[in-house]
Design brief:
Blueprint (H helix, E strand, L loop, with lengths): L2 E6 L8 H14 L4 E6 L10 H6 L9 H18 L3 E7 L7 H10 L6 E4 L2 E4 L5 E8 L14 H11 L3 E9 L5 H21 L1
Parallel strand pairs: 1-2, 1-3, 3-6, 6-7
Antiparallel strand pairs: 4-5
Bound molecules: flavin mononucleotide.
Flavin mononucleotide binds next to helix 1 and strand 6.
Keywords: Flavoprotein, FMN, NAD, Oxidoreductase
Family: Belongs to the azoreductase type 1 family.
Organism: Agrobacterium albertimagni AOL15
């Protein structure tokens, strides 16, 4: 039975294109028999990494102060949620050439030495192996190819950090060019929905 984790990050609620398409993809992957855990990073407001957190993650759990233990409790829960999933669907807008900061905070909470990656004599090793990720990326302009591609820091960044954890970013579904007028936006959504169907059929 498949276990899907849907991570959405847009604050635009029902107006959000990445929320809508990522939800559609995750629901199709889960089907009738799979489990679907929804982690909406606007509902769950994560703290920025702070001093207590950076100290706590370098100590064994039983050596942490009460403040340090509290600072990693949410991170521990998010790591457990990630490790329980086979497939992760991540939705974000392209925001100033990168991802929503809510999603960046999630990454900072789930990338944990000893839990999701480990340093070995041969360099870092991902501990979240065997999981597949899909990204839904909504953007005003065009970034999947052409002159905008070098300014797309969202997809390469997520691919790097997920790969570091041992997770393969299988595919990115673009909902792009949505700022070029209502017709372009409609076309972008139709093309993303067609891609969702294709990925769901292939799964
Ligand atoms: C603060 C902000 C920054 C943005 N930066 C970019 C950008 O760098 N490039 C771009 O093409 N679109 C940019 N956009 C447009 C969004 O990518 C677009 O509205 C997208 O649909 C947002 O995703 P969402 O619909 O899931 O919220 C920006 C939008 C906002 C609100």
């Amino acid at each position: 039975m498949s276990s899907i984790l849907l991570v959405t990050s847009s604050p635009r609620g029902s107006e959000s294109l990445s929320n809508a398409i990522a939800t559609e993809l995750a629901e199709k992957f889960a089907g009738e028999t799979g489990t679907l855990v929804r982690r909406d990073l606007v509902e769950t407001q994560l703290d920025h990494v702070d001093g207590a957190f950076t100290t706590a993650i370098r100590k064994p759990a039983d050596a942490r102060t009460a403040e340090e233990a509290a600072s990693v409790a949410t991170s521990d829960a998010l790591v457990a949620e990630l490790m329980a999933a086979d497939t992760i669907v991540i939705g974000t807008g392209l925001i100033n050439f990168n991802i929503y900061s809510s999603l960046k905070s999630w990454i900072d909470h789930i990338a944990r030495a000893g839990l999701t990656f480990s340093y070995t004599e041969n360099g870092p090793v991902g501990l979240a192996k065997g999981k597949k990720a899909y990204l839904v990326l909504a953007a005003g302009g065009i970034y999947s190819s052409g002159p905008g591609a070098p300014m797309n820091h969202a997809e390469p960044y997520l691919k790097t950090v997920l790969g570091f954890l041992g997770i393969e970013l299988v595919e990115t579904v673009y909902v792009e060019g949505v700022a070029y007028g209502p017709e372009a936006a409609e076309k972008a959504v139709a093309s993303a929905k067609a891609k969702v169907e294709e990925l769901a059929r292939a799964a």
